[in-house]
């Protein structure tokens, strides 16, 4: 089975890139399942039912997310009816769920988990390491599950590596998201877990992580907060990785448009 995992899709330009290239990639690369991070889908901040539907129509099968997922407040009422995870280690009883089983037909069940790192992010989160233990323990004896993937949405590469080695041999893949910057450290860890620190964003790359350059430069020069506006022009990138469950490989699959 080949799983395509797309990093943070940023705002309308990111959605346009996905619509433009994904159907062909699925055909040419013989992709069986597409997962994407949805936390920046709508205006770069969170997701909506409509933007999720747009991406489902383009070929995405399931979504993970991250710290921004509830920035569109309407999404709190929508998430339970959509194939979207929110981080499992948000505290309390938020809507949505942090893990799911995806039925991949002849390829069996896939356990998909979404967790948020804490370093430089949000001190109110539950411990993602112990939350991963807790979730994996629920499925220890489930032999219907053929593959386990975690989207570890985090800022800090050392936390990502520590988490990946903690998971090595216990899940099939740990892929990173959130920084919007692609890394080239895709690797098979010693106990066979596939890993990459960050898939990177899909959207306008002539920007500061998707936001207009001038605004962020002024943010740093002036010392004052600025209203963020998302870049609409410039070069676009499609950033993803392909997980081959038979060969046990993780390869970058990028496209600059
Ligand atoms: Fe994020
Ligand atoms: Fe993001």
Describe this structure in words.
- With 257 residues, the protein is α/β, with parallel strands linked by helices.
- It has a single domain (2-256), classed as Purple Acid Phosphatase, chain A, domain 2 (4-Layer Sandwich).
- It has six helices and twelve strands.
- α2 links the parallel β2 and β3 (62-64).
- α1 packs parallel to α2.
- The longest helix has 18 residues, at 11-28.
- The protein is globular.
- The two termini are 27 Å apart.
- The model has no long low-confidence stretch (mean pLDDT 97).
- Bound molecules: fe (ii) ion (2 copies).
- Residues 8, 39-40, 66, 178, 180 line the site of one fe (ii) ion (FE2).
- Pfam families: YmdB (PF13277).
- InterPro entries: Metallo-depent_PP-like (IPR029052), YmdB-like (IPR005235).
- Keywords: Metal-binding.
- Fe cation 2 binds at residues 39, 67, 153, 178.
- The active site is at 68 (proton donor).
Distinct helical segment count: 6
The low-confidence parts are none
Compute the separation of the termini in Å. Answer: 27 Å
Number of strands: 12
Shape category: globular
Structural class: alpha/beta
Write the CATH architecture name. Answer: 4-Layer Sandwich
Mean pLDDT: 97
Q: Remind me, CATH topology?
A: Purple Acid Phosphatase, chain A, domain 2
Summarize the helix and strand pattern as letters: EHEHEHEEHEHEEEEHEE
What characterizes the major β-sheet? 6 strands, mixed
